[in-house]
Amino acid sequence: MAVRSPQTSAEWSAYYQLRYEVLRQPWQQPVGSERVPEDEDPATVHALCLMPTDAVAGVGMLQSAGQGRGQIRFMAVAPAWQGHGIGRELLGYLEEVATQLGYAEIVLHARQAAVPFYVRLGYAIVAPSHTLFGSIPHFLMSKELAQ
Ligand SMILES: CC(C)(COP(=O)(O)OP(=O)(O)OC[C@H]1O[C@@H](n2cnc3c(N)ncnc32)[C@H](O)[C@@H]1OP(=O)(O)O)[C@@H](O)C(=O)NCCC(=O)NCCS
């Protein structure tokens, strides 16, 4: 597998499609709800995980959160590939880029079901945060990056 930024228009389409299918469609959210203005920020980094077949198995993004911090958002692995190390690869890639960009810390708002994944990869719960779509509790989590 390879983790890198989307390059072709087909890869960008597959990138947003997977984000929609995993994080929006199961809650009957409209197409387009998977995109945010920060996607277009030049400081934002997008990552996708490509399998040898060119299938996109996972996606994630890193944006600036100010004050020397990066924020990871929209981590999504295709259901068929979950539990095979793809989330770990994506997170590792985004953390490496965050270190190169000089961020000292990563923050994120994790869905309750994903909290054990982030704990496994070194993140700590800071506080409960918002509830998405009236039903998905989130937790603010953070991890300091080695400089
Ligand atoms: C959460 C998600 C991104 C994790 O990606 P993944 O590819 O399934 O996870 P990995 O296989 O890379 O797991 C890495 C480690 O975390 C552990 N882990 C992953 N999900 C876990 C869970 N729900 N509970 C406990 N441990 C978990 C794995 O066992 C693995 O640890 P190990 O090396 O000791 O076996 C992915 O499952 C997903 O997209 N879920 C649905 C959408 C979602 O919740 N996204 C996050 C929004 S905040």
TrEMBL record:
Entry keywords, A to Z: Acyltransferase, Transferase
Sample GO molecular function, one term: acyltransferase activity, transferring groups other than amino-acyl groups
Domain N-acetyltransferase stretches: 1-146
InterPro entries: Acyl_CoA_acyltransferase, Bact_Acetyltransf, GNAT_dom
Classification via CDD domains: NAT_SF (cd04301)
Gene3D superfamilies xrefs: 3.40.630.30
PROSITE patterns: GNAT (PS51186)
Pfam families: Acetyltransf_1 (PF00583)
Cross-referenced PANTHER family: AMINOALKYLPHOSPHONATE N-ACETYLTRANSFERASE-RELATED-RELATED
Protein name: GNAT family N-acetyltransferase
Phylogenetic classification of the source organism: Bacteria, Pseudomonadati, Bacteroidota, Cytophagia, Cytophagales
